[in-house]
Amino acid sequence: MAKKTLREYMDQNEFFYVPEIYDCISTRAAEMNGFQMVMISSSDFACSQTGIPDLNLLSVDEYCHMIERITYMTDMPLFVDADEGFGRPLQTYHGCKRMARAGADCILITDGNDLSRPGLATIQDACRRLRAAKDGMEGTDCLLMASCKHEVDEDFDGFVERCERYIEAGADIICPLEINRSKKYGGKLGAAKKVAEHVKIPFWYPDLDPGDKAEDAEDLLKWGYHFTGIHYSFRSAMYAMLDTGRHVFETRTNDYVMEHYDYTGYHFYYSPMTCFLSDGKWADLETRYVDKPEDALAVRKQKGFCGPTDKLVPDNELTQR
User: Could you tell me if 90 and 205 lie in one domain?
Assistant: First the structure.
C-alpha cells in the first residue's frame, strides 16, 4: 500500500497532534503512542546533534541524513522545521529540494530576519524565500508551511497582508505564530478564529502550551486548523536521563532504571531494542537469506533482547491514571 500524502490526511477532516521529535527513537516512541505524524524540531534536533543550544550550525546534509533515516523507518508524514531556510533564497531552494526528495512531507519556513537577527524579514524578502522553497519542492508531494511572526494585536491588517502574500508565494499551510501572544481578541483562541475569518488556507495552530485544552484546539478544525505541535520528546528524554543518571551515579548500580519506570506500564526486559524486534519482522526477514535460523543476527538479537516480561503497550488502567 502506498504511503498516504499529507493532503490525504487533511481530507479526512481530522485534527492532528504532531509531536516534535529529533531522531529515529523519538519518532518510534511517538508512533508507539499512537500519533499519526511527527515534526523534526530544529531546536531539539540541533541540540541533540551538537550538545549545545540551537545556534543554526547544522547543514542541509545533516537535515537530509536524519530525514532519510526517519522516513525509511516509518510511513508517518514528516514535517521539518527549516527556520529561515539556510541562508539566501538560492540556498533555501537547494535545501528544500534536497529535503523534499529525502522524504519530507512538509517544510516549515519562517519569516524571521536572515542571519537570525531580531525582527522580521520584509514582505518582499520573505516571499522570495518562500518562492524559492516552493520551487525546490517542485515535482514532489511536499507541502510548504509559512510561519507568520507579524504582530497580530498591533497591526492585524499587516498580519493578514503578509499571510495573503505568503499564499501567493506558494504557501500551502500558514502557522500564525503571533496569536500565541494575542490579548486583544480574546486570547490565543480568539485570535486564531479572527485570523481564519480573514485568511483562507489550512492552518497549523501554534504549539500547545501548558493549560491549553485539547477540546479547544480541536474545535478550531472548522476554522481550518488541522495541526498543532507538541514539544515533549526532547524535554522528557533529558529529564529521564538526568534523573536516572543521578541515581546510577550515586548508587553505582543499575537497579533504578530496571524498576523505577514500571509505573508507566511499559517494560523492557533488557533494552528498548525490543521495540524493533518483538514483532519478529527482522528475524523473519533475515532467515530468508541464511542457511540456518541461528545464522541470522536478527534472530540472535531477538532472543537476547526480547523477554517474557516485555510490555510495549501499557495496561488500560495505567493509561487512564
Answer: yes
User: What is the pLDDT at residue 320?
Assistant: 45
Q: How many residues does the chain have?
A: 321
pLDDT-derived band of residue 1, with 50, 70 and 90 as boundaries? low
CA distances from 145 to 80, 84, 85, 109, 174 (A): 10, 12, 12, 6, 6
> In Å, how far from its chain's centre is CA 76?
10
- Domain extent, residue 10, equals 6-231
Domain count, the chain: 2
Tell me the C-alpha distance between 197 and 216, whole Å: 17
Regarding whether 44 and 157 lie in a shared domain, the answer is: yes
Cβ neighbours, 10 Å, residue 50: 13
Give the mean model confidence (pLDDT) for residues 45-65: 95
215 belongs to a structural domain: yes
Residue 127: enclosing H or E segment and its boundaries? helix 123-137
Assigned domain for 102 exists: yes
Looking at the fold, whether 12 and 154 belong to one and the same domain comes out as yes
Cell of 257: 532504571
Is pLDDT at 226 greater than 80 in this prediction? yes
Q: Which residues contact 61 (CB under 8 A, 6 or more apart)?
A: none
